């Protein structure tokens, strides 16, 4: 049975799966050329079907990564009753029921116009995140933790996953969001929320958290008994809204170095989330951990979770943010139908690669080059030529095979360069017109990974997708200084 997965919040996208096998997955930003493009993913739907070689009439179920508008309203109104409506509507992602209905109507009309006439199923936001992590982890049994800014009025969940089923055991509301906690400092330091949080991770390594920590410690904490996040952060957002910088945080930023502020927020995020994972893992006797949600784009946080003594194996879904919920929705629906005996499928599978987007033939590439009047040469062994150019100190843009699913460039749409030049992070980023505080990431053959990275056992699979950092060896510092951060960590892609 072929299922079409669709998300239409920010970073929207679409996928096609067939009895659990992922045939295609792509996000609207890759086609519209607008970073983290949201709304109805009409381009993605069409492209996902094309890549999967699937006719519209072959789709039997459409899985939406969202609550039905009426169910969203039922969940949201009690929150409104407890808090001021003015405060609730300031949170990101808390869309009105009317907006949801409008987006849904646009998608339905489009599906009808191209010939998709299928059953509709709706999957709640954090269940999509949890499903994306569990059903691609390869773990028969594991603990899944999700955390983001907000989705369907929830900001984090704890789930026990076994027997092809996701069972939620705890959740945190939107007001005590770890994601919005981190976004607040992103905003306060002059960066774009929901986009530049990764810059804060890199910046934090240069700071001294103890200089600011006591001022922000109480903003979030863990309610161990109920496995949910609490703290004073709720007061900020009800009072100021999520797009406005709280006066208290403005004062902190004015009186302290931005590196120290970033370091304090990073430290507190790590403390609370590692405590959540540690407590849940021990309570439910689960030593394999799968993670999803935008908070787990934080590669240093993921390293800290991996290093917990209660964790044997860790997996972070490659498209951990909302870019992955359309796939999570499709996998969740597939698993439900498999469990009900409606279809014969195998939903739970180890994700082997993320090359799930479009690819182009040599003729198509050559035609594009000719159209732009660009000079080019053809090589029989392009890999050897690429290696030669890199060894000569040249920077190579590699465009080959199917496009990656998720935010990471993993070789098929990548910029390649020598890791021996420590100054490359300055001059290459300048040429790319971007500001980054973390170094470029290395690609390492898995067989040599331990020569360059420490404590990789249990994280080899997830490191194939560049979702975690490791402390580096002296060999790495000496031979590949361009990929080593100031805190002596690196975010590698292991190549099996």
Structure description:
This protein has 496 residues and is an alpha/beta fold. The chain has three domains: 2-127 and 324-339, Nucleotidyltransferase, domain 5 (2-Layer Sandwich); 135-319, ATPase, nucleotide binding domain (Nucleotidyltransferase, domain 5), CATH 3.30.420; 362-400 and 408-495, DHBP synthase (Alpha-Beta Complex), CATH 3.90.870.20. Helix content is 39%, strand content 18%. It has 19 helices and 18 strands. It has helices at 28-32, 42-51, 69-82, 85-88, 97-114, 125-137, 178-188, 197-204, 213-216, 233-240, 247-255, 258-283, 299-306, 325-339, 362-371, 382-391, 424-431, 449-452, 474-479; strands at 2-7, 13-18, 21-27, 59-64, 119-122, 142-151, 154-162, 165-173, 221-223, 228-230, 288-292, 313-316, 396-399, 413-416, 443-445, 470-471, 489-490, 493-495. The protein has a five-stranded mixed beta sheet, with helices on both faces. A five-stranded mixed beta sheet has the order 8-7-6-11-12, with helices on both faces. The protein has a two-stranded antiparallel ribbon with strand order 9-10. A hairpin with a 5-residue loop joins β1 (2-7) and β2 (13-18). The mean pLDDT is 94.
Number of strands: 18
Give helix % range: 25-40%
The shape is globular
| Uncertain stretches of 5 or more adjacent residues | none
Number of helices: 19
Per DSSP, what share of the residues sits in E-state strands of 2 or more residues? Answer: 15-25%
The CATH architecture of the largest domain is 2-Layer Sandwich
Quickly count the domains: 3
Through-space gap between termini: 31 Å
CATH superfamily of the largest domain, called what? Answer: ATPase, nucleotide binding domain
- Largest sheet strand order: 3-2-1-4-5
What is the top-level CATH class of the largest domain?
Alpha Beta
Report the structural category: alpha/beta
Major beta sheet, specifics?
Answer: 5 strands, mixed
Instruction: Fill in the CATH topology of the largest domain.
Output: Nucleotidyltransferase, domain 5
Q: What value does the Rg take, in angstroms?
A: 22 Å
Mean residue pLDDT: 94
């Amino acid at each position: 049975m072929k299922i079409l997965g669709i998300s239409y919040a920010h970073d929207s996208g679409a996928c096609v799966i067939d009895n659990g096998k992922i045939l295609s997955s792509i996000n609207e930003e890759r086609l519209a050329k607008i970073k983290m493009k949201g709304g109805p993913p009409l381009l993605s739907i069409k492209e996902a079907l094309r890549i999967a070689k699937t006719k519209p009439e072959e789709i039997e179920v459409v899985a939406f990564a969202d609550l039905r508008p009426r169910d969203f309203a039922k969940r949201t109104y009690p929150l409104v009753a407890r808090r001021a409506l003015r405060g609730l509507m300031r949170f990101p992602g808390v869309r009105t029921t009317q907006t949801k209905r409008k987006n849904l109507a646009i998608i339905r009309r489009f599906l009808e116009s191209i010939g998709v006439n299928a059953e509709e199923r709706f999957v709640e936001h954090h269940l999509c995140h949890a499903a994306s992590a569990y059903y691609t982890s390869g773990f028969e049994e594991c603990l899944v933790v999700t955390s983001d800014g907000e989705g369907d009025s929830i900001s984090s969940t704890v789930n026990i996953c076994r027997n092809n089923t996701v069972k939620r055991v705890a959740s945190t509301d939107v007001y005590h969001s770890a994601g919005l906690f981190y976004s607040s400092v992103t905003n306060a330091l002059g960066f774009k929320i929901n986009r530049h949080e990764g810059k804060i991770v890199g910046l934090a390594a240069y700071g001294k958290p103890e200089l600011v920590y006591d001022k922000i410690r109480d903003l979030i904490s863990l309610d161990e008994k109920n496995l949910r996040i609490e703290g004073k952060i709720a007061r900020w957002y009800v009072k100021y809204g999520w797009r406005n910088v709280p006066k208290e945080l403005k004062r902190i930023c004015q009186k302290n170095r931005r590196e120290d502020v970033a370091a304090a927020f990073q430290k507190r995020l790590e403390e609370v989330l590692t405590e959540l994972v540690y407590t849940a893992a021990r309570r439910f006797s689960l030593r394999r951990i799968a993670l999803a949600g935008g908070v787990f784009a934080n590669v240093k946080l993921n390293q800290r979770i991996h290093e917990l003594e209660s964790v044997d194996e860790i997996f972070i879904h490659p498209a951990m943010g909302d870019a992955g919920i359309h796939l999570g929705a499709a996998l969740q629906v597939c698993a439900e139908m498999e469990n009900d005996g409606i279809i014969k499928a195998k939903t739970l599978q180890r994700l082997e690669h993320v090359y799930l987007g479009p690819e182009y033939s040599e003729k198509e590439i050559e035609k594009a080059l000719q159209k732009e009047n660009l000079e080019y040469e053809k090589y029989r062994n392009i890999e050897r030529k690429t290696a030669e150019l890199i060894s000569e100190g040249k920077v190579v843009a590699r465009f080959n095979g199917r496009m990656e699913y998720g935010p990471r460039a993993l070789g098929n749409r990548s910029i390649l360069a020598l890791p021996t030049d420590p100054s490359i992070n300055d001059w290459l980023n300048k040429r790319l017109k971007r500001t980054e505080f973390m170094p470029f990431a290395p690609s390492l053959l898995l067989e040599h990974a331990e020569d360059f990275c420490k404590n990789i056992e249990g994280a080899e699979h997830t490191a194939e997708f560049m979702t975690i950092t490791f402390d580096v060896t002296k060999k790495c510092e000496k031979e590949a200084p361009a990929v080593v951060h100031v805190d002596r960590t690196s975010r590698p892609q292991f190549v099996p």
